Amino acid sequence: MIEIRDLVVRAGGRVISSVPELDLAAGRCTALVGESGSGKTTALLATLGLVEGAEVTGRVTVCGTEVLTASERALRDLRGAKAALVMQSPQAALNPVMRLGTLMRRALARHGVKGAAARARAHEAVSAVLLDPAVLRRYPHQVSGGQAQRFALALALALGADVIAADEPTSALDVTVQAEVVAVLRRLRDERGLALLLVSHDLALVSTVADDVVVMKDGRVVESGPTARVLTEPAHPYTRDLVAAVPRLKEVEL
Ligand SMILES: Nc1ncnc2c1ncn2[C@@H]1O[C@H](COP(=O)(O)OP(=O)(O)OP(=O)(O)O)[C@@H](O)[C@H]1O
User: Fold this and answer.
1) pTM, whole model, 2 decimals?
2) N or C: which end of the chain has fewer CB within 10 A?
3) d(Cα 104, Cα 121) in Å, to the nearest integer?
4) Residue 214 three-state SS
5) Is the C-beta atom of 40 inside 6 A of ligand 1?
6) Residue 249's pLDDT is what?
7) Predicted complex ipTM
8) Which residue has the least CA distance to atom 9 on ligand 1?
9) Does residue 45's CB lie within 6 angstroms of at least one atom of ligand 1?
10) Is residue 186 within 8 Å of residue 150, measured between CB atoms?
11) Cα–chain-centroid distance for residue 201?
């Protein structure tokens, strides 16, 4: 679903993010972790061809599209349907004067799905993210952060996404709501076979959803591999520090 080779993003004469190799298959989740400014979000955005004001080199293939050389049109097609980006606070990105159902129907209509088929698709998608379909009658300000986050995932599902790229999907949420979103992410990965690329500084979250982790520091990958291995036997001193800084990680089943 995602194949990255020698991705390098340069700005202001320095490398702000580089990922030599990353392979993400259907039904799997890879998390990019590391301190603030380590280049995680830039790598995520570069994967979907969304980096602006910086030079991007290398090869990135998402759902068969060569992102770095694709036309704007091909990129729009990719991002509109097969690969969705879910940002930290999706509420802010939702049109405030439109009910969620209208928003979803309009998005589906742009993909030629209308009427009863669109209603059925919308209901099915919100149910898949464990939301009550009644949420479709609400306006963005009438739903919680966790519901908005799950709605963003439902929208991606309704449009037929195979890949979801999510930037800090739970950091704006309180702990109980975080658990709901994590449960939904796992479900999408396991039951729908979605490929998830996550950016998160939350190693507890990462340990419960990610199959593989990529640890970044100062724009470079310092370590990567299966989550259970990297978090229990970190090879790099920086990863060791990251793990040591999260006491509750020890309680999480890896
Ligand atoms: N277009 C750009 N031009 C110049 N510098 C940039 C650009 N985009 C990002 N940067 C810088 O690159 C570095 C990496 O940023 P990035 O947002 O990828 O880090 P991050 O690991 O996601 O951090 P955070 O967890 O705080 O979001 C930062 O120092 C940022 O200021």
Assistant:
1) 0.89
2) C
3) 9
4) strand
5) yes
6) 59
7) 0.92
8) 42
9) no
10) no
11) 13
**Token digits of residue 221:** 């990958």
> Averaged in consecutive runs of 10 residues, what is the pLDDT profile of the chain (254 residues)?
97 95 97 93 95 95 96 89 84 84 92 90 89 92 87 89 90 77 88 93 88 96 96 93 75 50
Domain total of the chain: 1
User: Strand ranges (DSSP E) for the chain?
Assistant: 2-11, 14-24, 29-34, 55-62, 65-66, 83-86, 163-167, 195-199, 212-217, 220-226
CA 37–ligand 1 middle distance (angstroms): 5
pLDDT for 150: 87
Cα within 13 Å of Cα(242), Cβ side: 30
Which amino acid appears at position 13 of this protein? G
| Residue 118: Cβ-neighbour burial (10 angstroms; 0-12, 13-18, 19+) | buried
Residue 248 confidence (pLDDT): 62
Give the residue, by CA position, lying nearest to ligand 1 atom 11: 16
How many angstroms separate the CA atoms of 224 and 206, rounded?
A: 13
Query: Cα(239) to centroid of ligand 1, in Å?
Result: 20
Domain assignment of residue 130, given as a range: 2-251
